[in-house]
Amino acid sequence: xDQAHAEEILKKVIAIPTVNDNEKEVADYLASLFAPYEDxxxxxxxxxxxxxRSNLIVTIGEGETTLGFSGHQDVVDPGDLADWxxxxxxxxxxxGRLIGRGASDMKSGLAAVVCxxxxxLEEKKVPGKIKLIATVGEESGEYGAAQVTDAGLAxxxxxxxxxxxxxxxxxxCYTSKGVVDYHVTSKGIAAHSSRPHxxxxxxxxxxxxxxxxxxxxxxxxxxxxVLGKLTSxxxxxxxxxxxNSVPSQAELSGNIRTIPGYTxxxxxxxxxxxxxxxxxxxxxxxSVDYIYPEEPMPGDAHSPLVQLLQKVGLEVFGHTLTPxxxxxxxDGSEFVRAKGDYPIVMxxxxxxxxxQPNEWVSLAAYHQAIAFYQQFANEFFxx
Length: 383
What we know:
The chain has 383 residues and is α+β, with helices and mostly antiparallel strands. 31% of the residues lie in helices and 27% in strands. Keywords: Amino-acid biosynthesis, Cobalt, Diaminopimelate biosynthesis, Hydrolase, Lysine biosynthesis, Metal-binding, Zinc.
């Protein structure tokens, strides 16, 4: 594939606004690029999440071993347009950089994988069975990857490379923390503050939960050698009606970053157990909801997959890719639930400008990424 065509594909996907919505337009476009190769056995499937939102699964080649590539189609909101030098959805090239929302996170990675796969098809040199999974909703909860996983569409993989930006492809993220976001509601009984015995103080009950849950979670003190310890924060809290009333309602939200040493079920057991204990007391009415919890992603810095990626990186880029851990969740946190026991890593083009105004990717890095993914696929299958 020539560079001009590769750049047009990247421009096209960036020009499609997919701020937590509209991924089907990207999926349809990418599907149209693979459609001419259906005579080579290419299969194309769209898995609808909701109207206007579709995951895309494309499989090329054949064999018993399946190499997976993945990327998300959604982007974050561009924010205040006055902070941008250009329209975030009109891709603009300046001084070797392509600027636009999603240029770094992560439409350049997704487009690079697509271009690598298309190049294999054009050359009729597909080294083995390769599956592309393009997801919806990564930026707001990884629910596209969750849907794909629940549908069993990632069960047959032997390895998965997610094309998230990793410091201009200088790093390989092979392990990462999970996340448990939760929301606790406390219901009380309103009364005049001069007669508090006639009411039930929802705020006091909620604060009792907040103090005790932090203490119990602090006892989960394993330390991962790369990711460190589990962390827990109460990030939002509000309640009450007015200053001279016993508060009849209160609520808080918390954010927990988990490590592979503790599954999310361990966290649920701590929180649910405490809620049950408090609700056994007279007048307590606490409830909890979990918001898109993500499992931690375990990994091995010395795995054959990481070593192969380092070898190919040295060949393509002239430098060794450094294995690192990540503190944030990604689609990998959902794919770890697949039935297949396979390694998952993240490596992709991009800059440190993700989620910022004037987000950009180096076009040179983008083209190198295409070559990297194609060569990696060949060497993965021993070609």
